[in-house]
Amino acid sequence: MKTVREALTQLRVLMYHRIAPPELDPWRLCVSPERFSRQLEVLGNQFEIISLSDIFSRDDFHNTVALTFDDGYSDNLTIAKPILEAFSAPATVFVTSGYVNGQREYWWDELEQVFLSPGTLPEVLHFHVGNSELHHEFQSSRSFSEDQANLYKNWKVTWDGTKPPTERHELFFNVWNLLMKTDDSARNRTVDYLFKWSGIKRLIRSTHQPLDIKGLEELTSGGLVQIGSHTVTHPDLTSLPREEKVVELSQSKEELDAQLNIDIETIAYPHGRYDLETLFLTREAGYKVAFGTNNKQQLDFDLRFQLPRRMVLDHDIDQFLMAIQ
Question: Fewer CB in 10 Å around end: N or C, the chain?
């Protein structure tokens, strides 16, 4: 008889973010609706697509796959849900609760507005955030025309040392990397400053908008889609002191429980990052299952609180099948 650990290692958990045309998408978060439909068709033919709630009631996950979405983008409702319904495919959306009913996009999307939109930026950027400082004097690409923005609309961030195509793209990544390591209030103040500095008008684009409570209620109506937590502010939990970890884990669950009148049982760690303290606090907060990302990290703790997932990119079917094997 298999142990719980042995059984769970058979389960494939796929991680999506947005179902939308992958044009200006530096973080590779988008899968086109057409490819998503084709992926679900293939999955339905080759696997049993299960709900995460099935984890609590079965001990065999051979040839199974589960679908998850991170963050809580509005296209999860408007585009993804109808496709899921067409294939009777259950899914779980992990929601960053601090952005629900908020008046801003996710901070990484706001950085995209500042640095990758057409226009002319000031010659010098200088700011402090936390214990860090950034000073940049433009040598080129201060001005970015519509044609230039369109030329680089398919650019993706890489982690192999490849130099970004322009000074703007490099600055975009450097600022992102700096803000990744700061707390939410300091990060938001910095992003507010960047909009003022740039002269770019802050938008809440329908294509990038986080779901509000009404949208989450519509998303879960019918029972095919469930909601999990993705913390309050989407931090790197390993960078936080214990008391801030507790707030991120517990408050998110409490907010979503109260707002949606449900019991949140699952969580996905932002950026897939966790440490042993995070695992203990996740269990103490009342979650039953927790997920990382594609990493192979496994700490000496219950596997149910550190299940891996495989990020799905905008791949054709052959690439998709290779990625999920």
Answer: N
Please choose, from the candidates 94, 103, 167, the residue with its C-alpha nearest in 3D space to the C-alpha of residue 137.
167
Nearest to 216 by CA among 282, 271, 286, 264: 264
When the pLDDT of each residue in the chain is averaged and rounded to a whole number, the result is 93
Domain boundaries, the chain: 4-103+206-324, 107-198
Q: Which residue has the tokens 């109808």?
A: 82
Query: For residue range 55-87, what is the model confidence (pLDDT) as tens digits?
Result: 888 888 989 999 999 999 999 999 999 999 999
Burial 133-154 (b: 16+ CB within 10 A, else e): eeebebeebeebeeeeeeebee
Residues 6+ apart with CB under 8 A from 73: 17, 18, 20, 208, 209, 210, 211
Region of poorest pLDDT, from 50-54, 159-163, 185-189: 159-163
Whether the per-residue pLDDT at 205 is higher than 70: the answer is yes
Instruction: Please say whether the structural domain 4-103+206-324 has been given the CATH code 3.20.20.370.
Output: yes
The string of pLDDT tens digits covering residues 130-160 is 889 999 999 999 999 999 999 999 999 998 8
Burial 233-271 (b: 16+ CB within 10 A, else e): bbbebeebeeebbeebbbbbbbbbbebbeeebbbbbbbb
DSSP codes of every residue in 64-121: EEEEEEEE-BTHIIIIIHHHHHHTT--EEEEE-GGGTT-SS--HHHHHHHHHHSSEE-
Provide mean pLDDT across the span 161-170.
94
